[in-house]
Write a structure and sequence with these properties.
One of its GO terms (molecular function) is metal ion binding. Keywords: Electron transport, Heme, Iron, Membrane, Metal-binding, Signal, Transmembrane, Transmembrane helix, Transport. Residues 1-30 form the signal peptide. This is Cytochrome C. Helices cover 51% and strands 1% of the residues. By secondary structure, the chain is mostly helical. Strands 1-2 form a two-stranded antiparallel sheet. A hairpin with a 4-residue loop joins β1 and β2. α13 packs across α14 (310-324).
Length: 439
């Protein structure tokens, strides 16, 4: 028989050739598209430094602008795609001059933002502006991925047998043992009956409680131990009355000291300014919050934690806006306010006198001494017991601050000779006198 060549080989060669040509064509098209995009992209984003741009943005622009939301001015993310670079240079250097000249884009932008005049920045060079534009051209950061080892709801253990399966198997084995013991007992009972074996009854014995009641010595010793133990626990319970250490109430507006005092390093006395000059530290006015949150209506994506999401923090800022009557859309106050019913955490008895200014300003004691590491607290709590013993112990250990305090100079010279020490404690200066704290 005559051997005929494989007619499929020609088709396969043609198909292979067509595939190679199509691959090269798509690759060339993609390279052309990338080149075109690089050509169309703003010149500022090609050689500028977005890291320096972020620093310039925070120091010059952040007071009135956000990247992804409208503030006093418009959102600035992707601003390079809306305006030409030459126009942006002029606008940033002197926006008022462009508005007066009748530039239609400048006038429209001015009217769209409630006719708020933008501050001119003639000190910024074109390179500085390029850096800022490069920063605003970056893509929005995504939410952080779960930390390694964090428990994710619905996740299963892929590396081994589930604990539930192991516990279920153990429970099944225990049930089987119980059933087997029951069956063995039943079989042995039948065998005993078949062989005529009679199991002897246990001899009656005196109940243990009767034997205990007849022993007068044990009754006396036990009674004394019970009385002492009861007195100990009653004393411990009564001594804790009014001691609210680690009290951590939920507030109507969630306020994170960790974010404010920790991450952003806001000084405690910026919000609690009364602590420097008054007996009480005071509850900060919501107007103090609005000094910053007028332009901070949402937190960064990186602020979110596994326990508290970005949406949760943003909701708390909205509660603040509702309380003060702030409309973030129009950037104006509505006049409709709502009181915030804060839950008090630290509360001394009425017969105790404590002056914050005397400790903060005169003694120079840090807030963390009494309130703990507040910069690490997500929810504020009472750190110290605030008992009389705790205060007295502090007075016995703390030296009086003498530098720049002429009031104590004479008394310090006299008492230091009396006690034979170089530095006096608050206790040696009269800090243990009853009238100092009780009046």
């Amino acid at each position: 028989m005559k051997k005929v060549g494989n007619h499929n080989s020609i088709s396969r060669k043609l198909l292979f050739s067509f595939t190679v040509m199509l691959t090269f064509s798509l690759t060339s098209f993609a390279q052309d598209a990338v080149s075109a995009e690089a050509t169309e992209a703003p010149v500022a984003t090609q050689s500028a430094d977005p890291v320096k741009g972020k620093e310039l943005f925070n120091s010059n622009c952040a007071a009135c602008h956000k990247l992804d939301a409208k503030s006093t001015g418009p959102a600035l993310r992707g601003i390079a795609s809306k305006h030409e670079m030459a126009w942006l240079y002029k606008w940033i250097h002197n926006s008022s001059e462009m508005i007066k000249s009748g530039d239609p884009v400048a006038v429209k932008l001015f009217e769209e933002n409630n006719k708020a005049v933008m501050t001119g920045f003639p000190q910024l060079s074109t390179d500085d502006i390029d850096n800022i534009i490069a920063y605003t051209s970056e893509e929005k950061a995504q939410a952080p991925a779960p930390l390694p080892g964090a428990v994710v709801a619905g996740a299963t253990d892929q590396g081994g047998i589930s604990n539930t399966i192991i516990l279920g198997a153990l429970a099944l084995v225990m049930m089987m043992l119980v059933v087997m013991l029951f069956l063995v007992n039943k079989v042995l009972t039948k065998v005993a009956k078949a062989n005529g074996i009679v199991v002897a009854d246990k001899a009656a014995s005196t109940p243990i409680w009767k034997a205990f009641a007849k022993n007068q010595f044990l009754v006396l010793v036990t009674s004394i131990l019970l009385l002492l133990a009861s007195a100990y626990f009653v004393y411990g319970f009564l001594m804790q009355v009014g001691v609210d250490q680690n009290y951590e109430p939920i507030q109507p507006i969630h306020y994170s000291h960790k974010i404010h005092a920790g991450d952003n390093e806001i000084n405690c006395k910026y919000c609690h300014s009364a602590a420097r000059v008054s007996k009480n530290a005071g509850i900060p006015s919501l107007n103090v919050c609005m000094n910053c949150h007028k332009n901070i209506s949402e937190v960064a994506e990186t602020t979110a934690t596994p326990e508290y999401s970005k949406a949760f923090y943003d909701e708390q800022i909205q509660k603040l806006y509702t309380a003060v009557g702030w409309d973030k859309t129009t950037q104006s106050y509505t006049g409709k306010t709502q009181p915030v019913k804060w839950v008090r955490i630290h509360n001394l008895p009425d017969f105790v006198y404590f002056n914050h200014s005397q400790h903060v300003t005169v003694a120079g004691i840090e807030c963390q001494t009494c309130h703990g590491p507040v910069e690490t607290y997500e929810i504020q709590k009472q750190f110290a017991p605030l008992t009389m013993g705790w205060c007295i112990d502090c007075h016995r250990k703390t030296d009086v601050k003498m530098e720049g305090n002429a009031y104590y100079t004479k008394i310090h010279e006299e008492l230091s000779k009396k006690y034979g020490v170089d530095k006096l404690t608050a206790a040696q200066m009269g800090g243990l006198e009853c009238g100092k704290c009780h009046y």
